[in-house]
Amino acid sequence: MKEKVLLLYSGGLDTSVMIKWLQEQQNFDVLALTLDVGQEKNDLQRIAAKAKKLGAVKTITEDVKDKFSEEFVAQGILNDGLYLDKYPLSTSLARPLMSMEAVKFAEQNDCNIIAHGSTGKGNDQVRFEVSIKALNEDLTVIAPVREMNMNRDEEVEYAKLKNIEVPNGGKYSVDENLWGRSVEGSNIEFINEGVPEDAYKWVLPIEKSVDKPVVLSVTYSGGLPVELNEKQMPLKDLIAELNYVAGQSGIGAIDMIEDRVVGIKSHEFYECPAAITIITGHKYLESLVLSKRESQLKKFMDQQFADMVYSGLWFDPLMDHIKVFQQSINAAVNGMVKLKLYKGNIIPVGVESTNSLYDMSVSTYGKNQTFDQSKAPGFIYVFGSQTIATRKVRKKHLEEMIIKE
Amino acid sequence: MKEKVLLLYSGGLDTSVMIKWLQEQQNFDVLALTLDVGQEKNDLQRIAAKAKKLGAVKTITEDVKDKFSEEFVAQGILNDGLYLDKYPLSTSLARPLMSMEAVKFAEQNDCNIIAHGSTGKGNDQVRFEVSIKALNEDLTVIAPVREMNMNRDEEVEYAKLKNIEVPNGGKYSVDENLWGRSVEGSNIEFINEGVPEDAYKWVLPIEKSVDKPVVLSVTYSGGLPVELNEKQMPLKDLIAELNYVAGQSGIGAIDMIEDRVVGIKSHEFYECPAAITIITGHKYLESLVLSKRESQLKKFMDQQFADMVYSGLWFDPLMDHIKVFQQSINAAVNGMVKLKLYKGNIIPVGVESTNSLYDMSVSTYGKNQTFDQSKAPGFIYVFGSQTIATRKVRKKHLEEMIIKE
Amino acid sequence: MKEKVLLLYSGGLDTSVMIKWLQEQQNFDVLALTLDVGQEKNDLQRIAAKAKKLGAVKTITEDVKDKFSEEFVAQGILNDGLYLDKYPLSTSLARPLMSMEAVKFAEQNDCNIIAHGSTGKGNDQVRFEVSIKALNEDLTVIAPVREMNMNRDEEVEYAKLKNIEVPNGGKYSVDENLWGRSVEGSNIEFINEGVPEDAYKWVLPIEKSVDKPVVLSVTYSGGLPVELNEKQMPLKDLIAELNYVAGQSGIGAIDMIEDRVVGIKSHEFYECPAAITIITGHKYLESLVLSKRESQLKKFMDQQFADMVYSGLWFDPLMDHIKVFQQSINAAVNGMVKLKLYKGNIIPVGVESTNSLYDMSVSTYGKNQTFDQSKAPGFIYVFGSQTIATRKVRKKHLEEMIIKE
Amino acid sequence: MKEKVLLLYSGGLDTSVMIKWLQEQQNFDVLALTLDVGQEKNDLQRIAAKAKKLGAVKTITEDVKDKFSEEFVAQGILNDGLYLDKYPLSTSLARPLMSMEAVKFAEQNDCNIIAHGSTGKGNDQVRFEVSIKALNEDLTVIAPVREMNMNRDEEVEYAKLKNIEVPNGGKYSVDENLWGRSVEGSNIEFINEGVPEDAYKWVLPIEKSVDKPVVLSVTYSGGLPVELNEKQMPLKDLIAELNYVAGQSGIGAIDMIEDRVVGIKSHEFYECPAAITIITGHKYLESLVLSKRESQLKKFMDQQFADMVYSGLWFDPLMDHIKVFQQSINAAVNGMVKLKLYKGNIIPVGVESTNSLYDMSVSTYGKNQTFDQSKAPGFIYVFGSQTIATRKVRKKHLEEMIIKE
To answer: Which residues pair with B30 in a beta bridge?
Structure first.
């Protein structure tokens, strides 16, 4: 009886080649698991049929968009999750969910091995392997791309040899889910020029974006978006709609040079129209309802979160502590933000909240202000005292040093 | 003989009223000091003449644009200085310089008192008073607006009474220098609507901005921009040119709800086309030349810097330590960034540096890659070990707890 | 009818003088509130009688040791709360509780004013006033010592005049509760010598401390000490017992130069035998059960906590978020620590926990070790790669610069 | 002609076995490099002779105590370098120096390989390999202990077989240099008991330590100790003397559970009498001369430093930036600290500095105080305002929520 391996199967070239390789080179029985996390090509039945045709002994498919949006993306929102202040962690957030599903089905199907399609120089191998092992240390994880050590050309050759369909024009390496689209490779690897237009898909380049401002409102409750234009909708639908609308307005294209977990700098392109819009609105609302101290500590926590999720540490117990902190602080993040989307810009055009700390009667320079200005000199006296004293002492010390010499 | 007071005189309504008030209500001799920090209305002679006419016993004027750009704004660039990740600290950076000049001229002219035009509920009073006291603790600082406790209407009335010209249409409270324009008050105080178009001056609203992308290059050396489109120019000129070009492309308008030093939330509007462009380019270049560890520590330092400058602590000795750190880390920030400016967007279209840490042969997914992928599993094994172990132990503990109960 | 003021009355000189001053100078009716937070002189009836005799129209007393230990000190333990890594926040933690009680009784007795005994240059005025205002912004808070502006000599004179008993030998200013004893003033203000022996009371100076090691065990559950020597006891009793035992062994004397909230450096002496012992044990246990990432983030949070509590910000909503984080992370802090107390030293002599992350089979250099050493080179290759690459690039750049010149 | 390998040779069992193994198993010519970093057994000639006898084709010896103290330990002092707040980084600081020397001699002698004696589960392999590669990426680094994968017993057997002297009683694994002594293995690996007495060597256990307080003074200049008891001496001598004196007083024994770079928790014992004394004095002096803001930022930097040095990242360019920061801030750390050493305790008994920020006339509660207490209420009003406002808003929001339900 053959050893069984559960393969995270996307339907693409890499993992299709893998089905063959795992069977023929490694003598495994392959179970193909395909998940719908909101990617565009999500005809699960067609993908499963392809796996079957390539020899998979069993195919499993599942729509996990609810789970993904409510348990993973939601944390990305509460944490204003942006790696290096830019990348909304779209792929990073999906990997732990996929690992969790893979472990579940591996256990149900008595597979001791899970195979994934990542290479040996990226982040995803780290995310898959740490997540899977954290959930079930007894499972073995293999990454055939890394172990086969084929480059793109060799892979295509092998595919042709095995009668595996090679998709047209797939010059970029792409990963998609409802929180964003990651694009790598080919011309994006050149940093001395901009990202080529053919890498864009969800976002219209500014030049081609809709030439009319779109004003919309997002209502947040406990830090999560619950209404779009005052219409309540499930998070996954709200995201889908925003991906379209904001993408049409040229919003969410991200060009960055990033530091991978494995210490490599890479040039990446992301398209995350909904993510960027939702996080921008969330932050603007936070600036209204959180105190300065809260904002500062939250920002520190946000950075921890982003770094950990990016690095594949979703299942680290530290995450639990971060989550309760963020849930507590987001309890005050309620209200509505109106945003004007226009040619790549997200412009706030109104915000309101029952938790607002903005008090016009305090801040105004006009009439009827209520801040007691006579208290300011006392504040300044105390606030500046150590700066003034330190400077004086240091200056005197310097002068004495000079006199001595 | 009357006591002498040195007044930081801008030529505007507030400080014009003050000349009268200091003379007539307080019986002081007023020396009016006017500085050119790059504001639009910088006809120093005309302003001095106005002061004279209002009764100032002496007027002093000085163009400090070089000093401002090279000693203050330069630090803002090296530190990627953005308060709350948004505001480039334009006014904040000018206040310590103005304080320094005021102290110098007060000492030269035997004035024991310095008067400034700030209110009792803003940040500027803190910046002026801490800075002046840090430089010379024996000086007295007064803020007539705060002490008079007049609101705008009363001030206008007083001005009319004293034959002081009341400027037309000055519905906003504005402060300008070459690093940016701050706009407060009037309709900006309403947070349930966007910033009104009449608050814009340096930046064209997106709808009206130039409808053609502008591609330009900024060359940085030691972290400072030294060339625009490969033409060397002094920092102040480079900034002036960028203020124009980027402003025409709709770049640099900032709407934010901010936390003032005195604990008040206020709604502010800034226009900083050059600052936003230069800092964006600087950060993009940093992402190429700094290691992840460097970036992380620098970011922490950047936040310290922004918070301190915003809070008026420029002359705190801690600043000296931050400066040497930033000078050291910026020594590697050399190279050229090409940016496409278009309708509010700053899009990187190429970057190069002799300090580049981007190595395509390492990061590529194509042929001829040099990263040793066989090392990855060892890394992941060690990197994930504590996450995996902690999770296992916690889970076991939880199970034991449940069994006990 | 006279205005009523609720006075936090300790029975000491300062607040006794205040009863007179508030009646006679300010024409108030005084209600005296005395709380037992674990100070030595806690004969509440005697203190109340004294207040009555001095003219208080009403006296209120309450034993709040349970509330203090379980709701305030407990947080100090979970957060390893040490200001500047040294001071266990004993007085700082009691102030918000006292404020809370004062507000409660003020509301119950229709007092609009609360008076406290703090000076105008210390921390306690900040703690009382921010706490009281945070709980009920409509209350007025007064600090007669600050407003009277008497120094010690004048106060004694005034006391004699009013027939108020002046305690003997009270050369130091002392505050006590079950979490520690704070001693200030007199010779402690000289920093060119050590703390004089007569400032010691709870701790025996090393020379005089018990000359025999005491070994004891503290058992923690959810981060809180629940057993001493395997005997379960309420937190307040466990603390009381440890204060005695550890104090006899010379433990818990703290000499520090600290930064007050109001920007002043002061020289302080504290005696906190139980606090130092419990926190030391707590930290040692944490080093066993928390992962490195957890420890690092917790430490950052601990510092936030200590700084906020010290600064009087107990009732800031940010505290709620810190509390849930700390509760979550402390859930793993279970186990027993054995400590040898001897002549000022706390020496760990054994630790155990069902949450232990220490795995001798992994860490040992002996036989039967299970760590896969063959993985180490892969880890080092990746872990060091950016350090190596950065150094190489910088060096090359420097050389090119030199060649150019 | 054989390939040449440069071996970091200590004279101990591990590296002696390695000489044989490298020759016989790997067919290398071995060059043995022995450095004097202040370890007790530092008879370099005897050690070199032993290497020769075992077959080394060349031996090199060097006294690097000056370099070690002035370039490495000095940074440890300026940074108050304590890993996890406890371990003074003694071994960690020596490894990069040893790597630097090894690279220098490897280059001089045309060796392409460097061998070190570390295992595959500790920190030292990381420190050596990252340091050596950072200095010269072309060198190959090997760790025979890791590659041979022998445990202690097998090693002893191999040694006997090859006629290599096996030292008596060496039950612990020990590393020494002038900044401290690290002890691992054997009974120290049990965490349910204290560190056994036979692990102590530089420090007298409290019970046996000198029963008389020793008062001494350390004078710091620019943050570095330059005088002991007002007698100027080179750093290495000052350390040597303090190691003896403080060790006799029972100071510097450190028992900790630490997190290794490779993710393992281990139980370690260190003896660092001089390091603990010097850093304690340094910190006390800092509390006198640094402002609160300076102390806080420095502490953050200190932690970065400790973590990086511990993790083998001495040659990371980020270190250069940390160094300039620390040099700048330590410029103010001048003065004399008097310390009473007694039975494991370091008690400050006086401190003085021309940079002192302690101003008794400001902080005193006695007569002639100069702090303007009337300014305090203004400070408190502003300082507490956001806490009070936030709490009020949140409470109101909660109440509205409850009413709604």
So the answer is: B5
